[in-house]
Design brief:
This protein is mainly alpha-helical. The chain is built from nine helices and five strands. The longest helix has 16 residues. It is elongated and about 60 Å long.
């Protein structure tokens, strides 16, 4: 990461960006290259599967992942005996959301967050642990790795839209809008939008 890389003005945006840029550097990518989370997961020794691909999951865990709670989760990373990291992705989500989810799960691992534990709760219902602070940081770092600030800023200055930036990086326009907001570029984006409409 060059010390002259364009960075967000706010503390949280800078913190996410620094880690995101290190991840891109680890993957051997320039700021303009799209990041392939599936390739990065292999490189980071994280096994990625869909729930139905894993027959060794206990039936109650499988039910929790693909049953009634399917709409409420995107991905989960579990630590298996022997230190293997296993990332399970929701099979009902589209490619853009799946890429963002996998990048978030990779970020959890690279940031050293404790893997999710699935346990039987009150009334025999399967439950998953949830740490809101870790989820926020992992999503922020993952999004920064997927869409670097420098190219986001330059793209917006050149009149790019969230949709065109999303296509360039293989993510959703919603993720690009999140990046615009979290890096305090929203006012600039709206101003450029108004100028092009006028």
């Amino acid at each position: 990461m060059s010390k002259f890389t364009l960075m967000p003005r706010n503390h949280r945006g800078k913190a996410y960006e620094r880690v995101g840029l290190r991840i891109r550097e680890f993957a051997g990518l320039s700021l303009h290259d799209p990041l392939d989370p599936f390739g990065l997961a292999k490189f980071a020794k994280i096994t990625v599967i869909r729930p139905n691909d894993l027959q060794r999951l206990p039936s109650d865990v499988l039910r929790e992942l693909v049953g009634r709670s399917q709409a409420r989760w995107s991905g989960v990373t579990l630590a298996l005996p022997g230190g293997e990291q296993l990332c399970i992705l929701n099979p009902t989500h589209g490619p853009e959301r799946t890429r963002a989810t996998l990048m978030e799960e990779i970020s959890h691992v690279l940031l050293g967050h404790e893997p999710t534990r699935i346990f039987i709760g009150v009334g025999g219902i399967s439950c998953r642990e949830y740490n809101a602070a870790n989820e926020e940081v992992a999503y922020g770092v993952g999004a920064a790795a997927l869409v670097p600030y420098a190219t986001l800023f330059v793209g917006l200055m050149d009149g790019a839209t969230p949709d065109s930036i999303a296509r360039q990086y293989g993510v959703s326009a919603e993720l690009v809008c999140y990046r615009i907001k979290i890096t305090l570029l929203w006012d600039l984006y709206k101003k450029k939008l108004a100028q092009s409409a006028g």
